[in-house]
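Give me structure tokens for this 259-residue protein.
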Amino acid sequence: MSEFRAEKRVVVSPDARRLAEGVARRFFQRISSRAAEGKTTHVLLTGGTAGTSVLQAAGESPARHDVDWSNVHFWWGDERFVPADDPARNENAAREAFLSRIDVPTRNVHPIAAAGTGRSHDEAAADYASELAAHGTAEQAWPRFTIAFLGVGPDGHIASLFPDRGEIGDTENSVLAVRDSPVPPSDRITLTRPVINSSRRVWLVLPGTDKASALGLALAGASYHSVPAAGAKGRKQTVFFVDEAAAQGVPEELIDPEF
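Here you go.
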């Protein structure tokens, strides 16, 4: 295996449905083994169509009943700063698709504050940074995530870190309030790149032909300032889960058929 493939794997599924099911199956395999050993596990969730489809597949899988969720914590990589009942919130999609279907303690689910709850945009971001720090380690002011799920936009953005904006280069903060987002809604809250990249495993999910360009640029080593997905990298593993539509043009030697 080449050095490049050792750093980043590309796993191809025939279509978007089987892609979501395959990611969900691997998720359960990883979480189940840790839960059986009594280890505390932190998972970073994402929103969007791709992220929600994985959670939907997980929520429909019988394997969800075989996991002891008592030591599993769920966090979000970003959130739309809109009212709590707004369907645009990543939290709402995750609860409907998956979290409401598993026996996870309420205290283990860590949503980002919504608009209209008495906390300003900046205060909500600061609150989340404080909550992350409360579960942090001696080395970092946030948990050690076992898996960080990331969707990728056609422009290559991850979480709410958009191309050629200051947030993608921020290394001083763990959480930022994002304003005037190029993708609506305009107000968002996001984790920063150092937090995401401290995860053991970063799993990026990219179905569809509209993701092919972003995938190609990320694999080619584009600047993460211009293509944020190119800068996503887990400490142990980085995997791009794609369907055949998104994999157009990916060299065969970069595809891992065994993962």
